[in-house]
Design goal:
It is a single chain. The protein has 260 residues and is an alpha/beta fold. 37% of the residues lie in helices and 21% in strands. The mean pLDDT is 94.
């Protein structure tokens, strides 16, 4: 009945061959662009940058709004900057050209969060999703920016959302899916729900429920138990493994959970 559901532990990986076929040379380990932050915080993109290094990325760049330059320029020399709003210090619509230019360099993009609440940033993210067509992972408040407009990503190729159960329920509601995601539901119920949702939409989903990270991709579901999930960490590792195994999103997202 649940042949679509694959159960993994750190002692019993589902796709051990991916663990042994990782790039040995950093020059062949891919390029990740992390974007996020606003004038009042940049902890999510900074954490994602650090975790991407631990996950084995070849090269990682971080793009922050330029309102942060004076604050973090010395603390975070790896950062680059794009236009920000004069009011909230979040990314401005004028940052689009830099977002697209930097994205052309990368093999994968992680919208890591800490974008703040800003109408210009909302327009920027929506326009970016319409113009950028390759691997894209969203987590934290980046998910909040798109969750009410599911037509932007539900059937967009190469899109992964790393989201809380509350965000998952918002997504299901916005997508007019007839079932609900509840914190009280059993793991089997969640796996079945994500399987049925995955048959309708191609977006990859990663969520955390009851000590378990659940992955839905390519019509399959995996669960990795006893995982103390920090979603920024989960998203960074997922983005790295996925760009290193672009033809195997389900296997890559699932295997990414083993080394956190």
């Amino acid at each position: 009945m649940d042949t679509y559901w694959h159960k993994q532990t750190k002692e019993q990986p589902l796709f051990g061959e991916l663990l042994w076929s990782r790039p040995e040379n950093r020059r062949h380990a891919g390029k990740l662009l992390v974007m996020g932050g606003n004038a009042h915080g940049f902890s999510a993109p900074a954490a994602a940058y650090n975790q991407a290094g631990k996950a084995g990325i070849g090269t990682c760049r971080v793009l922050l709004p330029d309102a942060l330059h004076k604050t973090v320029g010395q603390l975070f020399p790896a950062a680059e900057y794009a236009a920000s709003t004069a009011t909230s210090g979040g990314f401005a619509k004028a940052a689009l050209a830099e977002w697209l230019s930097q994205s052309a360099w990368a093999d994968g993009i992680l919208l890591a969060g800490d974008f703040g609440r800003n109408s210009e940033t909302a327009i920027l993210i929506e326009t970016y999703l319409e113009k950028y067509g390759s691997q894209l992972t969203l987590v934290n408040d980046a998910v909040e920016y798109v969750i009410d407009t599911p037509e932007l990503f539900l059937d967009r190729p190469e899109t992964t959302l790393v989201l809380t159960m509350a965000q998952l329920q918002k997504l299901l509601t916005a997508a007019k899916f007839p079932e609900a995601a509840k914190s009280s539901m059993a793991l089997l119920q969640l796996a079945n729900l994500l399987y049925k949702f995955g048959l309708q939409h191609i977006v990859n989903l990663v969520t955390y429920h009851d000590g378990t990270v659940v992955v839905s991709a390519n019509g399959q579901v995996s669960s990795t138990r006893d995982h103390d999930a920090d979603l920024t960490t989960v998203a960074a590792h997922a983005a790295v493994w996925w760009l290193q195994n672009p033809a195997k999103p389900f296997e890559a997202l699932t295997t990414s959970l083993l080394e956190q």
